[in-house]
Amino acid sequence: MEFIWILFAFACGLAVKLINLPPLIGFLLAGFLLNYAGLEPSNTLDSLANIGITLMLFSIGLKLHVKDLLKREVWASTLSHMGISTIIFAGIALLLGTLSLPYFGLLDFKTAALLGFALSFSSTVCVMKLLEESSELKTRHGQLSLGILVMQDIVAVIFLVAATGKIPSIWALALFGLLLVRPVINKIVDKAGHGEMLPLTGLFLALGGYELFYLVGVKGDLGALIFGILLASHPKAAEMNKSLMNFKDLFLIGFFLSIGFTALPTLSMVGISLIITLVILAKFALFFLLLTKMKLRGRTSFLSSMILSNYSEFGLIVVALSVANGWLEKEWLVVLALAVSFSFVITSVLYRNVHRMYRKNKDFIRRFESTDCLPEDRFVQPVNSDILVVGLGRVGRGAFESLKGFVGDTVAGMDADRNRINQMQADQENVFYGDGEDADLWERLDTSRIDLVLLALPAAEDTTNVAIQLRKANYTGQIAAIARYQDEREILINSGIDNVFNFYTEAGTGFAEESLALIRPMDNATPS
């Protein structure tokens, strides 16, 4: 049975990838095909799906800082959006009921509001996958989106307590003691080393956090998230996340397959779900208006709203609970499962082109910006810099340090990870915060003095986008970039990049040259 799941997931995932669509769309399709073929899901599939979601929430925690949740643009926009969208969706549902559309006619205000509440959540799984694939987890809009998703998870916990009547155990108060054992957790991670024990430690902490919270009557997923947050400031947090990435992606395939096993839809269910899917336009507009009112830049608001405009797997939990309590008809579970699937497809397709969409419509989007943007969204001009390194990860940081040794302080660094920038600025480094894919940044930045820009970004697509935006902003200097694979080299050259450094091949050449220098003095000393 397990091989059949893998076969369908592989075939459908590869098929959609060949037409340049995200593989998760193929996994959703595989689930519906398996259901149509008459195969029954087993407890194994549910277990894989649950582990995938638990690891994903743990990974989110590793990249999140509590102070980010306390920002007004995070908690205020989340609560406002959920309240307003619940009312809007409930009103639309009641209006459709007056038109005698199937399933809507049986809704009253209470059940319509419940449906609206289920639709107000955004998908943590979908958003996280898209941000990871585009290497935008640490960007301004990436962190904002993750903060909103975490706030939604907190609301979900409160709802489940209220709806089920299951009040957490008195022992739940002891969970605050996790702050006291945080040094012990950090010590365990230190001792895990860098090999196979590191991902195993991550699995242990993620699943252990889930079980601990579940044991005292609190949503287990929240436990995995909290344990991740406790480790967010640990030096090995990024390394642990990378070591868990493949495990998490593999387990999440089970989640996407399980959606297709919810039920087989009828033609009328498909029609109703498509109508509900169209309502994500209202969800996008509401997010965008609220975020711009919070004094966020138009680009940040646009990108965040776009990636959050989908329906959540938690909506299925809300509807399933409502069906079990007799509040909604069981057909709604199928309708919402289809709407969730369709919203995943739409978000996945649109977000891959979101930067291009912003560039084409940036003048219109900027009209909604506040004249007084938040301090975090203001641009900083690098001073007295002839060379700019974009991306200060391991490769970029190494290049930045080497160039400093050659040209001194005339080299500047830029990165979209604010925490990394703050740490380097504390060490008096000439660096500043900025997202390389931000078209506004290159337009407002004076690059006339900069002779060379080094793009040390992990994804070739991101590097290409930055190069195109640099040229459109009339940058006339030289651009150099790194590539991980040989087939990326031509793509990068065609995007306007002057030189591409093959990360693996040329790193080996550099290693050989520096190692050879160890014996050259001996050769020179030998008489000819």
From TrEMBL:
It is found in: Membrane. Belongs to the monovalent cation:proton antiporter 2 (CPA2) transporter (TC 2.A.37) family. Pfam families: Na_H_Exchanger, TrkA_N. SUPFAM superfamilies: NAD(P)-binding Rossmann-fold domains. InterPro entries: Cation/H_exchanger_TM (IPR006153), Na+/solute_symporter_sf (IPR038770), NAD(P)-bd_dom_sf (IPR036291), RCK_N (IPR003148). It is a multi-pass membrane protein. Keywords: Antiport, Ion transport, Membrane, Transmembrane, Transmembrane helix, Transport. GO terms for biological process: potassium ion transport; proton transmembrane transport. GO terms for cellular component: membrane. The chain crosses the membrane at residues 7-36, 48-66, 87-106, 112-131, 250-267, 273-291, 303-326, 332-351. It comes from Marinomonas alcarazii. One of its GO terms (molecular function) is antiporter activity. Residues 387-502 form the RCK N-terminal domain. The keyword Transmembrane applies. This is Transporter (CPA2 family). Residues 7-347 form the Cation/H+ exchanger transmembrane domain. The keyword Ion transport applies. Its main location: membrane.
